[in-house]
Design a protein that fits this description.
alpha+beta, four-stranded antiparallel sheet, 7 helices, 8 strands
């Protein structure tokens, strides 16, 4: 399932292969569920002929009201990024859902929980929703092709006027890499909650982009039980959580979501590699409710 590092990797692909270049044309494939609020033909018309300026996650303003409001959004809108385009018109926001992916033709596809990374055998990829044909310069010969696919159709493709000021991005909490709150603000937000700490970490209105494997890694490194209630956390636990929320996400992003580059001491490595066939009981020390 894509999480914050996978989303950042996708944004980086756009920055590497499309920034400063023209979307010459777009192939789209009908899917009234994934294309949210418009047809696939409308999407193609909206972005064709426009220059790509940037692609990014976001750095949320921590003084905004949603940071302190309890709001549960388990559809994971934090797994999204936007593509900034020149000219008038709306901006595409891509939400990955559980199986969304972005890939460039003839380039290696990196996926976590995989033993090897290989280029796709066929193009376009299965379950493709659109393909961007990126033109470099004035020549119409040869395009860079970038495809968005989604097997389970839980992702969403949106067009918005102002990505940072409209849903889904405007409803998100802090980004652990771009806008981690201070320890005091983090502590204040935790102590008022009564839900289990893992549930809070998965709430995209609290911490955007943190999914199951990142939340488990954060809690394992902080030595905090996933079911411990937020309001029962002591000061040392909050300090550990504050450190590891930022640290785990930073490491995963710097590794470009390539699990072969994740640290050997991570729980992730035990789960998906060396320890997946071993019968081991792991216990955390201390009383937990």
């Amino acid at each position: 399932m894509p999480e914050l590092p996978e989303v950042e990797r996708a944004a980086a692909l756009i920055r590497e292969h499309a920034v400063g270049k023209l979307i010459h044309h777009v192939d789209t494939f009908d899917d009234s569920l994934v294309f949210s609020g418009f047809t696939h033909q409308e999407f193609a018309r909206e972005i064709t002929g426009r220059m790509v300026e940037d692609a990014a996650r976001y750095g949320n303003n921590l003084t905004s009201p949603q940071y302190s409001v309890i709001r549960f959004s388990f559809h994971h809108p934090g797994k999204c990024f936007y593509i900034q385009l020149q000219g008038s018109g709306r901006i595409p926001v891509l939400h990955f859902g559980m199986t969304g992916a972005l890939q460039v033709r003839d380039h290696v596809v990196v996926k976590y929980k995989s033993s090897a990374t290989t280029a796709p055998d066929t193009w376009p990829p299965r379950f493709v929703k659109f393909i961007l044909y990126i033109q470099d310069g004035s020549s119409a010969v040869g395009f860079t092709e970038i495809a968005f696919s989604d097997a389970r159709r839980l992702g969403r493709i949106r067009l918005v006027g102002s990505p940072l000021n409209e849903p889904p991005i405007s409803e998100l909490g802090f980004d652990p890499v771009l806008s981690m709150p201070s320890l005091e603000d983090f502590h204040a937000s935790l102590c008022k909650r009564t839900c289990p700490i893992k549930s809070l970490l998965l709430d995209q209105a609290f911490s955007a982009g943190v999914g199951n494997y990142l939340a488990d890694e954060i809690l394992y490194q902080a030595r905090v039980h996933p079911e411990q209630r937020c309001g029962t956390l002591d000061r040392d636990q909050v300090i550990a959580l504050h450190h590891h929320v930022a640290d785990v996400c930073r490491i995963a992003v710097q590794a470009n979501a390539d699990d072969s580059k994740y640290p050997e001491y991570w729980l992730f490595q035990h789960r998906w590699r060396k320890g997946k066939n071993a019968k081991t009981v792991m216990k955390l020390v201390g009383p937990f409710p």
